[in-house]
Specification:
Elements: E1 3-10, H1 17-20, E2 26-32, E3 37-43, E4 46-53, H2 58-68, E5 73-78, E6 81-83, H3 87-97, E7 103-110, E8 123-124, E9 138-141, H4 142-147, H5 166-176, E10 181-191, H6 204-217, H7 222-232, H8 234-237, H9 243-270
Parallel strand pairs: 1-2, 1-5, 2-4, 7-10
Antiparallel strand pairs: 3-4, 5-9, 6-10, 7-9, 8-10
Helix pairs in contact: 5-6, 6-7, 6-9, 7-9
Length: 271
Amino acid sequence: MNLEVLVSTMNQRDYSLINKMNIQSNAVVINQCNDNSQIEFLHSQHRIRWINKSERGLSKSRNLAIKSSEADICMISDDDLIYVDDYVEKVKAQFDKYPNADIITFQVEGIEEKFKDYHVEVRELNYLTSMKVASVEIAFKRDSIIGNKIKFDENFGAGARFQMGEENIFLTQCLQKGLNILYVPVKIADLHIGESSWFNGYNKDYFISKGAQFTAMSRMLANVYIIQYVLRKHKLFKNDISRFRALKLMMIGRKEYLNNIRNIGDLNERY
């Protein structure tokens, strides 16, 4: 069982990121910059494939990394992570221990401040619990993803029209395909908590993106997701926007996403 870290980054001018992240395994690095080139080299006897691409978009970067990987186990990664020294052994051990798991999510601790609270026991994730997962916690069997033709939705994520939710949509697709997702209370990395590349407060773009995200997860249940979010999360945004306004913006996001999908379908039929 071999493992690769799939790193999404931007505007790197050298290869020092490998040391900064404490990468001690094979890796695929997608560096979105003003260049299109590729290089392969060894770092401490580990194979690093460094791909420079001029296109933009986090989900595009993730998809290219998965496509370029040749590993059995892939770990989704960003450039603000620092891996623990024995992450390779830890991740492999969990996939050995739970052979029926297609995806395993792990723990990541914040450096500057607390990242999140974690459960202390192993548990299977479902449609609701998977919505709390961050992309950098995810490791998966590549064959399970490729074999089921699962990709990150390129309408979502930093650099796309809708700025959030790409990992939640990804995991929803996995569950819809019948894949098994497991959480284990095992730490694999520390995370620098800096300014978000997409979160600029509970504003118009946030709620439009949220509505689109829920619709991408399930067109049938989108309205249920939207309404429950307004009811349950009101305390988070009550000082910024009214419930009615939040609901209206999420419905706009739902409509915009559906129109976008229809337009893509029309183009596919035409060409």
